[in-house]
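Give me the fold.
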Amino acid sequence: MFSSRFHWDLRPNRLTELLREKRRAGAGVLDLTESNPTHAGLEYPREITGALADERALRYDPAPPGMAEAREAVARYYAARGHRVGPERILLTASTSEGYAYLFKLLCDPGDEVLVPRPSYPLFEFLADMENVKVRQYPLRYHGEWEIDRDALAQAVTARSRAIVLVNPNNPTGSFLKRGELEFLKGLNLPLISDEVFADYPLQEDPSRVPTLAGQGFAMSGLSKVAGLPQMKLGWIVVPGAEAMERLEWIADTYLSVSTPVQCAAATLLWAGESVQRQIRGRCAANLAAVRTALVGSPADVLAVEGGWYATIKMPRIRSEEEWALELLSKDDVLLQPGFFYDFESEAFLVASLLTPPGTFDEGVRRLSAALG
């Protein structure tokens, strides 16, 4: 009856089942996985809701790439960061997930392949399957910092490879693409798709990193992370060439998914998002310092992180990461994500969201440290 796309195991995993039991029982779970900024106790400027009262939202004038003024607002966002991007190369989408779907449609025939990093964003396989595209993973290796395994990536390229996906900085490792890595990638002669939703959240400076691939590949971002507004459903693709832009407009014209109100409000939302970004950057830096301090002298270690909202904790391999996560939730009411959620290749890693409200985060990592002790 249903499409073969739905071949995944839809049953809840053990951690999800335990969390449901805990919450049904009224346990005060310390959720160190909170990644929704609207649930994280941030202060949002009042201008955000006012921007949605624009009377132009009552008129529908569909434009496949998005309203000109909204694309101009995105171009100003890049200009403020020192990158010149013309609005004629910006295509609006409802989200970066939709952006992936558009780009897979643009670049791939059924059965073609895209290369994606591992560990990384856990939805790649689902998004590719929905477009009848196959995923081939290439590893990121950790040697004091994360880097692309160039030999493994080169070996993963086949005759059916159509694009290389990057997440810059990566989710959850927080590693930025470096200039030497970009030169290597260009030598593979495949289109580059760069997911840059966390690019505004560096935790340290490094002149060797690549801040954006805008103008050199397909660069994607959106209000979900840029302004901490996932509910506003506005993303974008910076497109590297006129022919690709023309074809993407044909795809977008088929769906016309981006709402008029959010496009009218785009300039204000991007402006207001600056204050939200400052709060998030400050919180992430403070929480990262807190978990590092809490685990000093313990058998666990916080891996190097350059940016984004997540910290990766290397746990003692006396049990699996799933067992660590289940035990912490069962005995200590602390929720962390096991590394296999992000396709870590080895054991044992836990992932914490640095967006978590500080009181919850501090108590959670204190309990983690006590459990390790």
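The chain has two domains: 14-43+274-372, 47-269.
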